[in-house]
Amino acid sequence: MQLENLVFLGVLLTSLTVFGISAFRLISWLRVARPEVRWDRIPERLVTTLVVGFGQSKILRDKTAGPIHAAIFWGFLVLLFAATEMVLEGLQPAWSLNFLGPIYSVVTALTDVFCLLIILGTVSALWRRYITKVKRLQVEHEKVEAGLILLAIFTIVVALLIQNSLRQHVMGSDYTWAFRPIAWPLGNAIASLFAGGTESGASGTPVSGGALYVLFHSAWWVHGITILAFLNYLPFSKHLHVLTSIPNVFLGPLGPSNVLEKIEFEAEGVEKFGVVDIEDFSWKTLLDGYTCTHCGRCTSVCPANQTGKILDPRAIIVNIHARTMDRAPLLLKQGKGLEFTPEEQVVWDKKLIGDYVLPEALWQCTTCGACMQECPVNIEHVPAIVGMRRSMVMMEGAFNEESALLPDVYSNMETNAVPWGGFAHSDRADWAEGLGIRTAAEDATMEVLFWVGCAGSYDERAKKISRAFSELMQIAGVDFRILGTEENCNGDVARRTGNEYLAESLTMTNIETLQRYQVRKIVATCPHCFNTLKNDYPQFGGNFEVVHHTQFIRDLIADGRLKIDREKINNETITYHDSCYLGRYNDEYEAPRATLSDIPGLQVIEVARSGDKGFCCGAGGGRMFMEETVGERVNINRTNELLATGAETIAVNCPFCTTMITDGVKAADKIDSVKVKDIAEILREHVVS
Q1: Do residues 646 and 605 make contact, with C-beta atoms less than 8 angstroms apart?
Q2: CA angle, 595 as apex, 594 and 600 as ends, to 5°?
Q3: Closest C-alpha to 495, from 535, 545, 544, 550
Q4: What's the rounded mean pLDDT across residues 576-596?
Q5: Rounded mean pLDDT, 152-177
Q6: CA 544/CA 564 separation, integer angstroms
Q7: Longest dimension (CA), the chain
Q8: Average pLDDT value for residue range 198-202
């Protein structure tokens, strides 16, 4: 082994040792949080990892930045071969991956291609960040670091390309299976700058007094040292996601992304409910903090942030990470019985909620889930936010100006099982008067149970939706029942605002009632009821088949039980608003659209933000029952976008959305010219009775 190889071995071992210490420290900090099983359902996790992690499916939703980042990511995967070969060459110049044969030909060709793509990608990224100044990338304290990282990546690939281009000229030949469609011509061009350059693939001796030899080895060392320096910088930077993104995607949520963790109130030794500090999160939330790319995609689609409020989903995760870096070492030190220094005591005395995360920001979240859908590494913002809401509500009773009405809402649910005040539980079924609808108590034999919900039972506008849908089922000959006065609030509002104890109480009461009547299938007109019954209730033993009324209607049409009147043609333009809890949370976008498309004369106009990029109405996460005093109202923003289509009717699928969009139409002074109707109401006007 030559001196150069010994020097490299020393550098390599030092680098790996330092990195190992940093990695061990980060892993030990995860252990201060609560345990959670995230390695079940391996096949599903592998598929998600292939599609989201390696396939970059979420990144590519951004048609501009997506391809740039994907090219850099895929390039780094290919360049792992080059990094491996760099280590082999550093230990022994004759060692390489040439033994892979034809595979090596493919790898070397791809290395050339991706070197070029990464160079273009980093230049484009620098241009977007510093010249065009994309808004979500303008984080003041990260500007220098981001630029240095991009320049480091640029340096790594340029140095690699130079060394590969010169290897044949310096070593006399390239590896036998190597195929470098870009590097070889580049090497010839570089060699031609010096007298007597050699041909591609030919053997020869260094030219111009060894200048190419110096250039080759300089590029090799720059490439190697920069990689090792970059590796050791990662644990201290926002680019730690280079190492943690794939594991984080693999360990991410499976199924509905909005499912919240159940609190075991009866568990022995439980002293805190919700998240007071980082040790109350699961370790996966702390890993989310490690993995955040700071890209701002979450913030760019957040309805609160985009309407001028302080909620910044990126900042929430970044600040959780900052608190982890500050508090986790102290938790470990405390566990060893060591005393804090005065400086450490100051850090220890700080609070997660208040010093790192603003309570006002937590209350502004509509739990729409857009942040989680757009996050390229499957970070779970909403469960973290709701977890902190839980501690504010159940541990401190801490409410701000906007959430000040929630205690009254909780009281109403405890007393009459409805969020609104002024309603009697005995009036819950009054909406059905004259329709001849039977309750489960009258006859428990049924095809399906219609879960009406609080809005559908009490709100004057929503009651019209309940009646329209009931009439559709009667026309179709569906044998359905309602619970009537035995139906309680499903618990969604209590749960999403942080009152898990109240939510569980309502949930268990409803499950007991449903099981007593041996209910198997439930249909709901409210996406919040639908989502809660479908995705939350199984945690408490309530396993039912649950469908949304737009899905149920679609099935009735497909089965021929509902027939659309083809002779009744109303030439009308309609735009459709996707509710978050039906679309984003339950991946149902087509059923409502298919029904509208089937109705003769209706011209459906898609709004700009539609489908899985739809924008929240502002009612979710309990915001329906809170004040909105900061920035533009979310419902106004959304309604103006819907009105801009010029449609005569705005179609909805949710009673909360109906209220919010109707209020928006009124605010725009368009209530006399633009109608807001549920899918059931629209179809009711176009079916053969």
Answers
A1: yes
A2: 105
A3: 535
A4: 96
A5: 84
A6: 30
A7: 102
A8: 40
Closest to 581 in 3D by CA, of 614, 556, 608, 553: 614
pTM of the model: 0.89
Q: Is 289 exposed, middle or buried (0-12, 13-18, 19+ CB in 10 A)?
A: buried
Q: Concatenate the DSSP letters of all residues of 98-109 into one string.
A: GGGTHHHHHHHH
Do residues 451 and 487 lie in contact, with contact meaning Cβ atoms separated by under 8 Å?
yes
DSSP strand pairing (448-451 vs 521-524): parallel
CB 114 within 8 A of CB 78: yes
- CA–CA distance, 14 with 8 (Å, rounded to integer): 10
- Ramachandran bin of 125, using left for φ above 0, alpha for ψ from -120 to 50, beta for the remaining angles: alpha
CA gap 663, 665 in Å, rounded: 5
Pick the CATH number of 417-556 from 3.30.70, 1.10.10, 3.40.50, 1.10.287: 3.40.50
pLDDT band of 206, cuts 50, 70, 90: very low
> Which amino acid belongs to residue 30?
L
Which two tokens mark 133? 């100044």
Tokens 């009147």 appear where? Answer: 565
- In whole angstroms, give the CA distance from residue 110 to residue 164: 13
End-to-end CA distance of the chain: 90
- Ramachandran class of 491: left when φ > 0, alpha when ψ lies in -120 to 50, beta otherwise: left
Token code pair at residue 127: 């241009």
For residue 62, give the nearest of 137, 130, 2, 148 by alpha carbon.
137
Please tell me if the domain spanning 278-396 has the same topology as the one spanning 417-556.
no
Segments making up each domain of the chain, as ranges: 3-29+41-250, 278-396, 417-556, 572-684
If pLDDT is split at 50, 70 and 90, which confidence band does 140 have? low
278-396: CATH topology is: Fumarate Reductase Iron-sulfur Protein; Chain B, domain 2 (1.10.1060)
Cβ contact 446:479 at 8 Å: yes
Distance CA 122, CA 129 (A): 10
Q: Angle between the 65-91 and 143-171 helix axes, to the nearest 10 degrees?
A: 50
CATH number of 572-684: 3.40.50
Cα–Cα distance, 495 to 536 (Å, whole number): 10
> For residues 200 and 218, what is the distance between their CA atoms, to the nearest angstrom?
21
pLDDT averaged over every residue in the chain: 91
- Quickly tell me which residue has 């350059």 as its tokens: 197
Q: Are 97 and 78 in contact (CB under 8 A)?
A: no
Q: At what angle do helices 342-349 and 313-335 cross, to 10 degrees?
A: 130
* Cβ atoms of residues 115 and 128 within 8 Å: no
Half-sphere exposure in the Cβ direction for 186 (13 Å, CA): 19
Q: 254-279, pLDDT tens digit by residue? A: 877 778 989 988 887 788 899 999 99
Taking Cα atoms as reference points, which of 365, 413, 415 lies closest to residue 385?
365
